[in-house]
Amino acid sequence: MTVHHVVTGALVRGDWLLLCHRSPSRRWYPNVWDLPGGHVDADESELEALRRELREEVGVDVAHIDDEPCARIRGGSDDLPEGRLEQGIWVIRAWSGEPVNL
User: Fold this and answer.
1) Distance (Å) of CA 95 to CA 26, 31, 86
2) Residue 95 domain-assigned?
3) Domain tally for the chain?
4) What is the pTM of this model?
5) Left if phi > 0, otherwise alpha if psi is -120 to 50, otherwise beta: which for 90?
6) Fewer CB within 10 Å, N- or C-terminus of the chain?
7) Do 70 and 91 contact (CB within 8 A), yes or no?
8) Cα–Cα distance between 43 and 24 in angstroms, integer?
9) Which residues fall within 8 angstroms of residue 94, CB to CB, at 6 or more apart?
10) Where residue 1 falls among pLDDT bands split at 50, 70, 90?
11) Where are the alpha helices (DSSP H) in the chain?
């Protein structure tokens, strides 16, 4: 059984929400707008993965992350070749650096 453990950050400033455009050549959900984030590596916690992914994808360092996500999404099936998705979504309101598409 494959489980895709994913973390995402909703970067919010005032009434703005940052979305990233996924490349048309991506295997999963190509050419769509999405929250920045990615897979959790085997040796890291969700919060460590979220900090790493936000640095890698949009070049920001998060000032504060709540211990628990604001939402969790679970989907897929053990019977599907793609496996299951387990995704945590955190609201991020404080960071350093100006977001750019890296």
Assistant:
1) 27, 27, 25
2) no
3) 1
4) 0.87
5) beta
6) N
7) yes
8) 30
9) 62, 63, 64
10) low
11) 46-58
